[in-house]
Specification:
145 residues; alpha+beta; 2 helices; 8 strands
C-alpha cells in the first residue's frame, strides 16, 4: 500500500512538472529518490509472502496466556509466556506455510498459513488442522529458554 501511495505521489508530481526537458530540474534528484523508494522491494510489506520465517517474532494468546514466539537465523524457535518457557523446536517454510516441529512433544510437524504481515501488523493464521490463531508480528527479539 505504501508503495502504491508513493507511486501515485510521484506520478502527480511528474504530471505537474511542465518544465522544458533542456532545463535542469532542481527537484529531479529528489523525485528520482522517491521513485526508487517506491519501486524498492520491501520484504516486510503487508501482503508480501515470507520467503523465510527466520529472524521474526510473533505475539499471540493461547489458553488465555500471552505468548511471544521468536525464530532465530537458523530456524530454531522458542515460545515463552512472560518468564515461563512454553515450547521450542525448529521451523521451516514449506509451500508457503510455516511448519513447526516441537522438540518437547512427539506430535510431529504442525504447519500454519503465512499471514503476510509486516512488523507491527495483526492478522490471523490457520493450521493444516483448521485451527485459527490471531497473531501480531513484532520487531525481531531473540529469546532464550
Amino acid at each position: 500500500m505504501r508503495s502504491l501511495i508513493l507511486l501515485a505521489a510521484v506520478a502527480a508530481i511528474a504530471g505537474c512538472s511542465q518544465q522544458p526537458a533542456a532545463e535542469p530540474d532542481a527537484n529531479a534528484a529528489a523525485d528520482a529518490n522517491v521513485a526508487a523508494d517506491a519501486n524498492a522491494v520491501d520484504a516486510n510489506a503487508a501482503g508480501t509472502a515470507l520467503a523465510q520465517i527466520n529472524e521474526t517474532t510473533w505475539e499471540f494468546t493461547e489458553d488465555g496466556k500471552p505468548m511471544q514466539e521468536s525464530i532465530d537465523a537458523k530456524g530454531n524457535y522458542i515460545v515463552n509466556s512472560g518468564k515461563e518457557h512454553i515450547d521450542h523446536g525448529t521451523v521451516v517454510m514449506k509451500d508457503g506455510k510455516a511448519c513447526f516441529t516441537s522438540a518437547m512433544t512427539k506430535e510431529g510437524e504442525d504447519c500454519w498459513s503465512d499471514p503476510k504481515l509486516a512488523v507491527g501488523e495483526s492478522g490471523e493464521t490457520t493450521s493444516d488442522k483448521g485451527e485459527k490463531l490471531a497473531i501480531k508480528r513484532t520487531a525481531y527479539v531473540p529469546l532464550t529458554m
